[in-house]
Request: fold
Amino acid sequence: MENIEKDLKFWHPVNLISTFFGVGKIPFAPGTWGSIAAYPFCIVLMKGVIELAKLQGSVVYRITQEPLLFFIVIGVILLLLFLIGTYTSHLYTKYTGREDPKEVVIDEVVGQLLVIVTTTIPSLATISNLTGTALNIYVALVIIFPLILFRIFDIIKPWPISWCDTNIKGGFGIMLDDIAAAVMAIISYYALFFLTIDLVNKFLIK
Reply:
């Protein structure tokens, strides 16, 4: 695939999606930047859902009235993003001739999104009884902690993440190991939450 990467221009859809609009081109820690980029992306998505939900006759409004249905829809959206990421990552490896390019960060974005919608958003929905410093500390923890956990698992790659990374190749492999890292981050988040809930109640909740 000699010089084929030269044909993959910045505005090419495969490049835009795989590198998440160029975030993956940041030379230092592109995976971490990809994870961070998931936060503003999630805010935009949620704001769009909220605005659509204000339209009482819309499908989104009806969905938001049923929590189970709402999370099913969120799951479908994440699945679609996973499939899109798998396809574009596969094409990117074909274009560049490289097996797992570091600049491909759509996997980190989707993995971090999965962590956000299953940890940060549910946690932020439980803070009605917090004010002042306690509120600020809680918000900081539920935003930053899931990011840290996901990055730890994505970088260290314990089993079964390492198995996915070693044995499953192509676009599917690129995406799958980050989904595995996301699942482990989610499990760890809630395990730590329940282990420290007494401390949270003591120091943050009056």
The chain has one domain: 4-203. The chain has a mean pLDDT of 84. The longest helix spans residues 67-96. Residues 4-203 form one domain.
